Amino acid sequence: MLALVLIAFLMIAAVTYFQYKEQIRDYNEERLERKESSIKKTIDFVLDNTSWELKTDRIPYIFKEKIYEIASIQGENLTMYDLDGEPLISSTDQLFDSPAQMKLCLETLENLEKSEEKRYVNQLDGEVSQQLSYSYINDPKYRPLAILEIQYEDSEAFINKELREILWRLVVVNILMVLTAILLAYFLARYITKTLKTVEDNIKETQLDKRNEKIDTTELPSELTTLVNAYNGMIDQLEGSAAKLAQNEREAAWREMAKQVAHEIKNPLTPMRLTVQSFERRFDPEDPEVNQKIKEYSSTLIQQIDTMSSIASAFSNFADMPAQQSEILNVPNIVKLSVDIFNERYIDFASAKEEIFANFDRTQLIRVVTNLVKNAVQATMTTEDPKILVEVNDLDTQVEITVTDNGTGISEDNLPMIFEPKFTTKTSGMGLGLAMVKNIVETYKGTITFTTQEGEGTVFRVIFPK
After folding, report:
1. CA 10, CA 16: separation in Å to the nearest integer?
2. Is the dihedral of CA 306, 321, 463, 465 positive or negative?
3. Cα 91 to chain center, whole Å?
4. Largest CA-CA distance found in the chain, in angstroms, rounded
5. How far apart are the C-alpha atoms of 21 and 11, rounded to whole Å?
6. Which residues lie across from 116 on neighbouring strands?
7. Closest-CA residue to 80 (of 106, 52, 99, 97)
8. What's the pLDDT tens digit per position in 92-138?
9. Of 52, 55, 334, 433, which is the most buried if we count CB atoms within 10 A?
10. 437: number of CA atoms within 13 Å, CB side?
């Protein structure tokens, strides 16, 4: 409604402006024609009653006094030229100041000659808008004696004042219309949307993980009953679908987890079984190397048990959601402590500031950094001159941690699966490290991204709010 009112105002203002301009132009033309007709009649009267011979060179003598009288009565400046455009006499002193500049140009003479009415009007736009009217002065036998120039000044100041007043009235009316439209739109919108507010609120609160309340249709208008009934039906279908989907997801997650755990545990169980069987077959209490063999068997079993323990810890850490503790940490200090755990001398640490504080769980932050650095170390194992740089940057309201390495990089085929659980390019491990890091970072409303170039290295970037 407001847009329509504004468009209507602009259209009316434009039409008014151009219509008024056109009317003023027509008025000036008609007024110029009336003045020209009146001046020509006066000139003809003077020519009829003069005692001078009617020749071009006599015009200055014939109108020596009359031209000032005519100009004063009509309120316009007059100038008379011979048929070649040379000035003869003028009601202004300009003719005597610069007669050479008063000569008519060839274009004006040609336009006057070609005109069917033997009349030519030239519009001059400047500080003062003028129209110069040119026509022939004829003798009683209609033979041209001279060329008459009438300088007609358009009343621009008066015209613009009138136009401004009209446009200002339109603006005032339009402001009143806009205010009225605002009030009407407000109350009309409230009336229309009042009954829709309940539906809107319920739709906003609709969630898959809780029971959604239906809308009572007893107090609603009949126009909305169909809409509300459709919403209530959708709620019933949504609850059934959500319950079924949740059950399927839980079953699928348990099946997948059980398969993964069974697969990872079965790997160390096989060498353990073979070791026990070998020990059972070859055990001889009187063997002089029995203690050494028992030590080797025990070492093998302990190694496989440690592997199973690491598997259990990895799954436990991945499943354990990090608790959001309100712990204010000096991020550069914690990151440096995490880097110091590693013995590799090619790992460097840098921080933009000595103190950058943020809310983060200390243990989870250490876990994020150590996982990223560990991956960087493994990526640079085959690099001749390995380099790893861990940086902490202050981004005003955020903290940025970057881990840069010059390792093997990540192939294009593996890019979409980097943060997926169970994905790994290594011969050992469960592929849960980056998935766990992503889980921790997103829990603290942060993001983790990476850029990589195969054969040149990778940069992991973690950003989280202070």
Report:
1. 10
2. negative
3. 65
4. 169
5. 15
6. none
7. 99
8. 866 555 555 578 888 888 888 888 888 888 877 666 567 788 999 98
9. 433
10. 25
